Structures are given as structure tokens and as C-alpha cells.
Amino acid sequence: MSETITQAEERMKKALSSLKDTFSTLRTGRASAALFDRIRVDAYGDKSPLHQVANISVPEARLIVIQPWDKGLIGEIEKAIRTSELSLNPSNDGKVIRIAIPPLTGERRKELAKQAKNHAEQSRVAIRNIRRDGNDELKKLLKDSKITEDEEGKSVDALQKLTDSYIAKANQALDEKEKEIMEV
After folding, report:
1. Phi and psi dihedrals of 62, rounded to 5?
2. Largest Cα–Cα separation, the chain
3. Is residue 45 left, alpha or beta, with left meaning phi > 0 and alpha meaning psi from -120 to 50?
4. Among 124, 163, 130, which residue's Cα sits nearest to residue 19?
5. Residues 17-49: pLDDT tens digits?
6. Which residues, in sequence order, are CB contacts of 139 under 8 Å at separation 6+?
7. How does pLDDT run across 92-148, given as a tens digit for each residue?
8. Which residues contact 79 (CB under 8 A, 6 or more apart)?
9. What gap in Å lies between CA 71 and CA 91, rounded to an integer?
10. How far is Cα 120 from Cα 71, in angstroms, rounded to an integer?
């Protein structure tokens, strides 16, 4: 019985972690190396994550500097950034790539906030699905006479409290991201 709750909690932690990872890649008005976590570069005949072929630094609030370890990859890195959904315009001097992060327009901020809400809702749905799976498992254990009705009832209550807790954490993460997106 407690194993069911433990497994559900592990899965809920993963759902929340996934939401936070997704939020880190949503562009705000500030420069962040995390923006490039999902960018893959054609390097040596393979798609490699950007952070594995270059050093990414943020020397100023609105500037990102990418220094490739192999100068021959500068064109591929620039191309990968231009074709990404980030809408950024990199420039290079043959040694490093500089990306000025322009301030977001009000319309773009609203669009990003809407994306964040959609991601948060997907996370909440995933958490509720995990609760449903846990409840199904508890019913199965009760049917197989492995737990009593009292144990099932207590476990269902514990699972609901866990679900409420993780949904609150997802909502809090959304509130923080919306605040970050909307600040000028």
C-alpha cells in the first residue's frame, strides 16, 4: 500500500521537474543559458546539444556569449539558433557568437504566459492521471484481498493530499514564471 503512494510521489516529482525544465526554456526578457538547453547542433555528423560543443555565458542581463570549442562549428551553431523557436538573431566575429536579447513586446509576453499556462495544465493533468493510476492500483489490491477497506481508504486520502500538494507546487511554479515573463 505505501509502495503505491511512494511510486505515485516519484512520478509526480518527475512531472513537476519536467514542468520546471520546460519553463526554463521559455524565453523571458532576461538572458539565460537555459534558453539553449533544447538546441541541437549538427556537429561531426551528429546532432549534439549546444552545451556539449560550446561554452555559454551570460556576461550581462541582455547578452549571451557562445564560444564554440571548435571554431569550425560557428556556422552550424548560428544556424541552429536561427532556426530554433527562440526568434533570436545571433552574430559572430569568427571566434564567438553574441546574442543580444531584445526586450519582449507586450503581445509576446502574453503569448509566452499563455504557453506557460498550457504547460502547467499539462503537468496538472499528468499529476491527476498519476493519482488515478494509484487509486486503480489500490482498488486492485483491495479486490485481491491484499489490503483492507480501511487501508484503502487511508491510502486514497493520502494520495489525494499528495496530489493536492503537487498541483499547488505546479501552480506556484506557473505563478513565478508568469511574474518573470511579465516583468519589464
Report:
1. -120, 25
2. 71
3. left
4. 124
5. 999 988 887 777 777 788 888 889 888 888 888
6. 152
7. 888 899 988 888 788 888 888 999 999 999 999 999 999 999 999 999 998 998 889
8. 42
9. 14
10. 39
Q: Confidence band (pLDDT; 50, 70, 90) for 184?
A: low
Phi and psi based region of residue 105 (left: phi greater than 0; alpha: psi -120 to 50; beta: remaining): beta
User: pLDDT digit string (tens) for 154-166?
Assistant: 999 999 999 999 9
Whole-prediction pTM:
0.75
Strand pairing partners for 48? 41
Half-sphere exposure of 36 (CA within 13 A, CB side): 28
Q: Where are the alpha helices (DSSP H) in the chain?
A: 2-24, 74-82, 106-143, 149-182
Amino acid found at 56: I
Amino acid (1-letter code) at residue 142:
L
Q: How far apart are CA 75 and CA 78, in angstroms?
A: 5
